[in-house]
Automatic annotation (TrEMBL):
Natural source organism: Pseudomonas kairouanensis
GO biological process terms on file: fatty acid beta-oxidation
Keywords per UniProt: Lyase
The family this protein is said to belong to: Belongs to the enoyl-CoA hydratase/isomerase family.
Protein name: 2,3-dehydroadipyl-CoA hydratase
MF GO annotations: hydro-lyase activity
Protein's UniProt keywords contain Lyase: yes
Length: 257
């Protein structure tokens, strides 16, 4: 049983993971990161899980890496850091991941949110990379993913000053797809997850992979991947079912084949 997470299941195929270290504003210590990585691995292996929502509390999605734990690590400790493996597992999660962010998403917390495919933010959410204030810099993808999400100028400003931005600002910049009242953030994320969970799983998986390719490859390679994935889907039963259901004016029943 995880100690730092709560996990709930919703039909059809949605898993809600809530970070629960309220005493430290969900700071990401080794235990929390390991439990999160294990939960995502379980969700990935489970055919019944089609989408995952990740959230924190009203006050904090996550206030970054656990600074007290960081204080105990020297350079050797950092090179052999077990949190590296946990971050790798989170990075390789291949099902749809939606972050429902209220309150602080700082440092590793902002980086964790950026691992999600979609971010829904409450009006009071604050996104920031304050590592510079500790004499360090982002280490879990912050410099790379933030720049791709918000562009060079704003990423530079956020990383070099450490100052956070609010939810509306993050939405205008493209980091966040929707802003809600804080009490509806999780509900809205679950609604989107349920919608995605009803789609053909192979199409969702390949569409996600193709979209992520756009972030790290040139246009010609991305288009090649897209064409290949599109061709693969043309041979699936779910594609036949989707088209037949349209013609028969009914809701499709996808099986993942
Ligand atoms: N770590 C540990 N404890 C934290 C914490 C954190 N990041 N953030 C907050 N807390 C604790 C506070 O110490 C306090 O504990 P008590 O004093 O009550 O025992 C409690 O949570 C409530 O916090 P505050 O009293 O400070 O609450 P406020 O509302 O006044 O302020 C705040 C909220 C979020 C503005 C403030 O707590 C704050 O500035 N927190 C630190 C934010 C921060 O600097 N985050 C970046 C950390 S560096 C890596 C990958 C990534 C990283 C590292 C390694 N590898 C791949 C190896 C990432 C690094 C970072 O994220």
């Amino acid at each position: 049983m995880p100690q730092t997470l709560a996990v709930e299941f919703f039909a059809p195929g949605v898993r809600l993971i809530t970070l629960q270290r309220p005493q430290a504003l969900n700071a990401l210590n080794t235990q929390l990161l390991s439990e999160l990585a294990a939960e995502l691995a379980d969700a990935q292996a489970d055919d019944g899980t089609r989408a995952v929502v990740l959230t924190g509390s009203r006050k904090a999605f996550a206030a970054g890496a656990d600074i007290n734990e960081m204080a105990e690590r020297n350079l050797v400790g950092i090179l052999n850091d077990p949190r590296q493996a946990a971050w790798q597992a989170i990075t390789h999660f291949n099902k749809p991941l939606i972050a429902a962010v209220n309150g602080f998403a700082l440092g590793g917390g902002c980086e964790l949110a950026m691992h999600a495919d979609i971010i829904i933010a409450g009006e009071d959410a604050r996104f920031g990379q304050p590592e510079i204030n500790l004499g360090i810099m982002p280490g879990a993808g912050g410099t790379q993913r933030l720049l791709r999400a918000v562009g060079k100028s704003m990423a530079m400003q956020m990383v070099l000053t450490g100052e956070p931005i609010g939810a509306r600002h993050a939405q205008r910049a493209g980091l966040v797809s929707e802003v809600t009242q804080p009490e509806f953030t999780v509900e809205r994320a679950l609604h989107i997850a349920r919608n995605i969970a009803g789609k053909a799983p192979l199409a969702v998986r390949l569409a996600k992979e193709a979209l992520l390719k756009a972030m790290d490859t040139d246009l010609a390679s991305g288009l090649r991947f897209e064409r290949h994935a599109f061709t693969v889907l043309a041979g699936t039963r779910d594609r036949d079912e989707g088209i037949r259901a349209f013609q028969e004016k009914r809701t499709p029943t996808f099986t993942g084949q």
